[in-house]
């Protein structure tokens, strides 16, 4: 499929919307100047356009397969991985001393998103390795770092994470995998893990699994879980992949989409592993990997949505149907409405995502706890709104195609099938929303109010040039503030949870209005000002209904008995 990485969009957002300049102004990221940033985005765009995009359809039509215990990748994926690895894209934000580039997470986020638009199935592989690199960097011993990180960064080896078990999905604490000390500093890890993205491949010489398991003295629940690094092949005295470990791929899942990405059922039978982090501290170590992975998954949603939008726009520009000025469907009012909605929401989701990435970088560069709190607050919003937007845009893309969207040969349906899982993995979007209204509100709503103060201050600045749009954003933010105060006041957590999803979406809607208003101010009379007017006039008003829903409490969700839910009266 054809794809064009939206490099100019990233450059505009970094320069005018999310204040990336403050990241480049820090000592830690001083080398990530605007010129360097532009060069990186341009080169990554070429990789996406020329190498990865042609693999999008191939992975869907010729999926991975398990043959005699060996995972066979889709045609061209090995070459695609090699190009990603040789370009240094896996280790963009990894430490220089281990072979990485030590670039800001903001740039890694941009590159990962454009890779997702080009070929989401393949992009999942480097994303898994990046998460493992980060977890090892923060929690592993120096010996493990020195052995594994350079090979993961170079792409010689690949990484995975193993959390889920048949009986332990979102409730990770219910896992049953065990780890027994071997007496020599290693552990024998046993158990079965499911839903392991890129659990194996045929183009890396070793696969390194991060596995959650319980030591003999581990208490029930999440507090008794430890994290282990369990390689497919045990490193020899030279640090190269040696003899096979006691683990295997049992089967590959037959999925709705992402056919080019193997999702494995993994079996560990006393496999040799090494402890990462402290005993019983596995969740802390794993969350280091998961938090940025959640931002990455939000980017997957935006990227896949970008691919779906480009695909739909191309079709609309060519498809002749009915009477219109151009003779094609792009001039029909409803088609134009759909395309404008797709483009406007992608801008909003991308801005939220990059704002979160900037906060992560500023925390890393300054150590300021306020930046850390900001990043933590924005992460569930970036993940949820990014993936919801990707799914909605891909769904709308099918609609733009009309009947042809339901025909697999056009490729429109693949974007929807591939992106649908992003709202589920790395913490379902419902869990993200619950996290936002519970853990992220433990400060009494302080960070939420900081963000709302910024939104209203910017709206005041915009009144001279865009009075109507500024007023709409300001009023929406006031409504959000009132809902936040109501939410924080609720002692019954279930009342918060019942409205968590609409509250998160309303917050994202208001943030989207804020970023669109910023774009209008930076692009007077230009296309981004016009797009901002569309968003603020037509999409931002959704916040009112969402906030009304968010403040109704839990009782209404339980008014039907289980028998009545089943239609039995």
TrEMBL record:
Top-level taxon in the UniProt lineage: Bacteria
Domain Acyl-CoA dehydrogenase/oxidase C-terminal intervals: 281-439
Protein name per the record: Acyl-CoA dehydrogenase
Domain Acyl-CoA dehydrogenase/oxidase N-terminal, residue spans: 78-156
UniProt domain Acetyl-CoA dehydrogenase-like C-terminal: residue ranges: 452-557
Domain Acyl-CoA oxidase/dehydrogenase middle: 161-269
Xref: InterPro entries: Acyl-CoA_dh-like_C_dom, Acyl-CoA_Oxase/DH_mid-dom, Acyl-CoA_Oxase/DH_mid-dom_sf, AcylCo_DH-like_C, AcylCo_DH/oxidase_C, AcylCoA_DH/ox_N, AcylCoA_DH/ox_N_sf, AcylCoA_DH/oxidase_NM_dom_sf
PANTHER family named among the record's database cross-references: ACYL-COA DEHYDROGENASE, BROAD-SPECIFICITY LINEAR ACYL-COA DEHYDROGENASE FADE5
Named cofactor requirement(s): FAD
Family: Belongs to the acyl-CoA dehydrogenase family.
Alphabetized SUPFAM superfamilies for the sequence: Acyl-CoA dehydrogenase C-terminal domain-like (SSF47203), Acyl-CoA dehydrogenase NM domain-like (SSF56645)
Keywords: FAD, Flavoprotein, Oxidoreductase
Pfam family, one: Acyl-CoA_dh_1
Gene3D superfamilies: Acyl-CoA dehydrogenase/oxidase, N-terminal domain, Butyryl-CoA Dehydrogenase, subunit A, domain 2, Butyryl-CoA Dehydrogenase, subunit A, domain 3
């Amino acid at each position: 499929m054809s794809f064009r990485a939206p490099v100019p969009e990233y450059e505009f957002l970094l320069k005018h919307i999310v204040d990336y300049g403050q990241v480049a102004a820090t000592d830690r990221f001083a080398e990530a100047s605007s010129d360097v940033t532009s060069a990186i985005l341009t080169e990554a765009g070429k990789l996406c356009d020329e190498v990865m995009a042609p693999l999008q359809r191939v992975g869907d039509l010729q999926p991975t397969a398990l043959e005699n215990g060996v995972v066979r990748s889709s045609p061209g994926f090995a070459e695609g991985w090699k190009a990603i690895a040789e370009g240094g894209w896996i280790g963009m934000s990894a430490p220089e001393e281990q072979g990485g580039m030590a670039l800001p997470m903001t740039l890694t986020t941009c590159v990962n998103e454009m890779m997702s638009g080009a070929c989401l199935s393949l992009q999942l592989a480097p994303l898994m390795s990046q998460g493992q690199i980060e977890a090892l960097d923060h929690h592993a011993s120096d010996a493990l770092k020195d052995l594994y990180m350079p090979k993961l960064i170079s792409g010689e080896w690949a990484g995975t994470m193993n959390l889920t078990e048949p009986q332990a999905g979102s409730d990770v604490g219910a896992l049953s995998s065990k780890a027994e000390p071997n007496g020599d500093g290693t552990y024998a890890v046993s158990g079965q893990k499911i839903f392991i993205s890129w659990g194996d491949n045929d183009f890396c010489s070793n696969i390194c699994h991060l596995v959650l398991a319980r030591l003999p003295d581990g208490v029930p629940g999440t507090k008794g879980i430890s994290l282990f690094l369990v390689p497919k092949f045990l490193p020899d005295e030279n640090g190269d992949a040696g003899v096979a470990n006691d683990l295997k791929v049992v089967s590959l899942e037959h999925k709705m989409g992402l056919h080019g990405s193997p999702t494995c059922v993994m079996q560990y039978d006393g496999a040799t592993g090494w402890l990462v982090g402290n005993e019983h501290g596995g969740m802390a170590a794993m969350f280091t990997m998961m938090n940025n992975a959640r931002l990455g998954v939000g980017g997957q949603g935006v990227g896949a949505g970008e691919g779906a939008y480009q695909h739909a726009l191309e079709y609309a520009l060519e498809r002749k149907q009915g009477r219109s000025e151009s003779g094609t469907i792009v001039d029909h009012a409803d088609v134009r409405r759909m395309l404008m909605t797709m483009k406007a929401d992608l801008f909003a989701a991308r801005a939220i995502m990059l704002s979160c990435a900037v906060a992560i970088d500023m925390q890393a560069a300054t150590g300021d706890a306020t930046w850390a709190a900001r990043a933590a607050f924005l992460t569930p919003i970036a993940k949820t709104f990014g993936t919801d937007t990707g799914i909605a845009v891909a769904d709308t893309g099918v609609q733009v195609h009309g009947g042809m969207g339901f025909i697999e040969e056009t490729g429109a349906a693949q974007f929807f099938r591939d992106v649908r899982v992003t709202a589920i993995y790395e913490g379902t979007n419902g869990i993200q929303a619950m996290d936002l209204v519970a853990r992220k509100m433990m400060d009494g709503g302080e960070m939420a109010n900081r963000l709302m103060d910024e939104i209203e201050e910017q709206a005041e600045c915009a009144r001279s040039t865009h009075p109507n749009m500024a007023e709409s954003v300001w009023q929406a933010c006031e409504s959000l503030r009132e809902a936040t105060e109501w939410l924080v006041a609720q002692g019954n957590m279930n009342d918060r949870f019942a409205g968590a999803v609409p509250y998160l979406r309303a917050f994202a809607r208001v943030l989207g209005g804020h970023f669109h208003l910023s774009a209008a101010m930076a692009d007077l009379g230009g296309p981004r000002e016009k797009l901002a007017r569309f968003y603020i006039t037509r999409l931002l008003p959704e916040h009112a209904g969402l906030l009304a829903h968010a403040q109704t409490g839990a009782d209404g969700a339980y008014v039907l008995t289980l028998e009545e839910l089943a239609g039995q009266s």
